User: Which sequence fits this backbone?
């Protein structure tokens, strides 16, 4: 399992997905009613998820804040339609992908007006615990996150979505299927292809770094 916490860069190891055994047929979890979500509760519990997912889906650093806030405007309007028996993260991801898609089109039309504040490849995880790390660890982690985003940006949207939710967010295949609107077998297929693509990209990156350090 990969997380954004593993350092990537010159002289360091690049995280590689751990090969997993063939997963058994997924079972639909029993729906358990939960207390109704309030907007404040959703924002507090899932802001980091929304922010980092927006970035991982390819929005440039300088526009991430704006797109994340636009996502929560949609969440505020649509929260009364959320069914408490569903997965909140799956529901949010569906909104995120639509807002990101609209934002990409807008940013392509207006490349000089991106809005927001530049983050230089930072992730919410970095901002949360950066004060606990020394300068070398902080630089290594920032480089790791930047490289991860480059690898994600090279994937197709469908593979990237499956990879992000499974490998980085540790969501189940059933939850991912709900989030992306696909059946479980399709998600399995996309995830296998994404893992192979990621591993090959990591091998190329290591070979490049090894050549540069000769």
Assistant:
């Amino acid at each position: 399992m990969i997380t954004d916490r593993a350092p990537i860069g010159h002289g360091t190891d690049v995280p590689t997905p751990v090969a997993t055994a063939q997963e058994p047929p997924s079972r639909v979890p029993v729906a358990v009613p939960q207390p109704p979500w309030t907007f404040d509760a959703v924002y507090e519990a899932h802001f980091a998820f929304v922010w980092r997912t927006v970035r991982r889906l390819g929005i440039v650093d300088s526009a991430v804040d704006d797109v994340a806030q636009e996502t929560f405007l949609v969440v505020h309007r649509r929260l009364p339609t959320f069914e408490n028996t569903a997965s909140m993260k799956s529901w949010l991801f569906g909104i995120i992908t639509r807002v990101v898609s609209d934002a990409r089109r807008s940013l392509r039309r207006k490349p000089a007006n991106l809005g927001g504040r530049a983050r230089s490849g930072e992730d919410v995880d970095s901002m949360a615990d950066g004060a606990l790390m020394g300068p070398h660890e902080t630089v290594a982690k920032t480089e790791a996150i930047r490289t991860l985003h480059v690898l994600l940006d090279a994937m197709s949207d469908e593979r990237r979505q499956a990879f992000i939710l499974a490998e980085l967010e540790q969501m189940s295949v059933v939850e991912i299927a709900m989030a992306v609107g696909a059946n479980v077998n399709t998600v399995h297929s996309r995830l296998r292809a994404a893992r192979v693509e990621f591993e090959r990209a990591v091998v190329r990156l290591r070979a490049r770094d090894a050549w540069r350090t000769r």
Q: What stands out?
A: Helices lie at 39-56, 64-78, 88-109, 124-129, 135-153, 157-168, 173-180, 184-212. Residues 3-16, 112-122, 126-130 have pLDDT under 50 and may be disordered.
